[in-house]
Amino acid sequence: MKQRVGLAHSVLALALLALLAQDASAQVAEPLVQKALQLFFGSTANATADGEVLAMLDVAITMPLLKLNGTLKKLPELDEPGASDCVKSLIQFGEAGNDSTAAWALMLGAFYTSHVANITTGPPDMFGLRQAFPVIRRVAMAQLVKAWLTRWQRQVPAELEAPLQQLFREFYEAHRVVAIRKGIMEYFHISKAGGTSWCHAAKNNGCRAQVYDSAYICQIGQFDDRVRWLNNTFHAQRTGRGARWGTWGRAQRATEMTTCEKRFEFAAALGYQYFSNEYTLHEGFEDPDNVGTCPQFFNVILVRDPLKRLLSHLKFVTMQMKWDYRNNTLFHNTFTGTDSAFWEEFGPVLVDNYMLRGMLGETVYHYPIGGIGPKQIAHGRAILQQYDVVVDLEAGHDVLDDVIELGVGWPHTLREIHDKDSTKAAKLLNLTYEDYLPSDMARLYQKQGPDVEFYRFGRVLVRLDALLFHVARGLGVQPLAATRLAELAERGPEAIKCGLLRRGPRQLNSTAREWQPNEYADRVNAEMKAAREEAQRRFTQRAARAKAAKLAKAAAAAAQAAEAAANAVVAAADAVSKQQQEQSGARRRALLSVEGAGAEAKAAAAGWGQLAEAVRWNEGAEAGRDGAHVRRAMAGMVAAQGRAGERQLRRVRRRGLGEEGLDRRLALELGLEGVEKEGAEGEDEGEDYGMHVGHGGPYDVYDEL
């Protein structure tokens, strides 16, 4: 019996091996790596384009040397055991021309399976190392692409297709498993590079965050990662009022949680899976060379063409200033005919290599105009290569879908979202951007050279990542092995649970497979909820007060208009009565100067029987006495007309003041104060922007649009 069972097991094993061999041959028959290389790096040679790509590939390949030779201070993954030796081996393979070979692939596979995750051992270990080694992976990918463009003449050797596919599986498994282990994403939000859309996508994919505000900023308030865009001192001198985002110069964060360790402890204790940071990277305030990402988090960044980003940023600020001023004359006088010098004073960080300034910490963020150079370019590129996921907003939705679905495990991508349409907002605000943008934009474009070089490198990193994710998709790999993304998408955000981050963050020494609520989290969440409710209450009160003031102002204007109309009616009546008096006086004088039946006939024909009777009855004094009767009658008629006009005016005033009275009663019921002051012209200079998070908040123009 045991022999038959053993034989059955042997047959089953042979059949399984045959199926695996058949599957492997089928994979080899499909040149997935070759096709993906052609897709992302071109099927035909182009000397100019290939030269630019090769230059950036060399930057990626040699970047770890900056850490090994002491030029770069901070590169956490090379501090892990065996990582530096792996990099040195890769460099040696490249120098000998033996990179992208079977031996090279075998060495890399052994490193990843032993240090991160072994895909042959079944379900991933959720408690392993939280480092996917993205720098080493991109060095290897850059070597592969370089070999394909040069030595291989754009054709992967047939015998290398299978080893390369296996290596891609191991690269992706390391990325996937470490994302699950980390459980919380820090998204570095480069302003006007798709950050609000990314936050919106996080919400659509069910990520836990501190708040999803209407402007989709999605920050952790306690970290003070707010933007510092504008120079408030300069703006106040020009306009006499404060500016939103006017915190340029306040470099240090207003928090004690400035280290990576403290930020992670706070976010993990509260169970967040996602948050955005729109200020700078970390731990570089005192020493800019020490700045970098926090390796405890799953780090994601979106980059964008710097010139497009700059133009978008200037448009956005211009639009928001028009909204905030609520005074077209002030806005027109402030922004019409501006030039680059104006913007270098008003928003220096906006117009001078904004992307690199944010990447390199608080101190570099506040460098003077022209302070960004080759050293900052090299440092920014080195940090960018350490990100778990790099996304290029200009790459197109097909690439973005691969990167987001495979790289993050989100079925809802940016294809579904387009927040903050500046064209629509300009139309609603009756704003023509060209009238208010700098007259010498070309000068500002020319000064973005460092950001342009940084972006050139970022685009190549994105193509390397897209190459990996595209091949992984072709191999049938799923971000979540148990469930397909399409099925999760149909079930909604509650089922997606933030994709690869679905298990949520855990403390480094935690043995729980999922984050669990605790008393600390409950208390802080309750405090934050109370703070948000109080902020909302204050905002509602301010909004009601502003609305009441607006209505009162409109009612007063209506009352004034009605009074003017009534006065016009009275004046017209006065003019008519005066004209009638003059006509009657002329007729009376004519009658008094005529004697006999002719006068009687004329008086009767004119309807002045009383005057004709007076003439017949007595001449001279008697006629004068009856003339006085006529004058008294005319005066009574005018008085009657005046009383009618006054009654009409009182009715008009009651209608106008009735609305104002209603507004005032509403204001009293709401406990509002200073209705007249709120409605006065120019009273918006002192608006309280203290409850803003990032560059959004209840006064954001997009709340109204």
TrEMBL record:
In residue numbers, the region (Disordered) covers: 676-705
Q: What is this protein called?
A: Sulfotransferase
Q: Which domain of life is it from?
A: Eukaryota
Secretion signal span: 1-26
Q: List UniProt keywords, sorted A-Z.
A: Signal
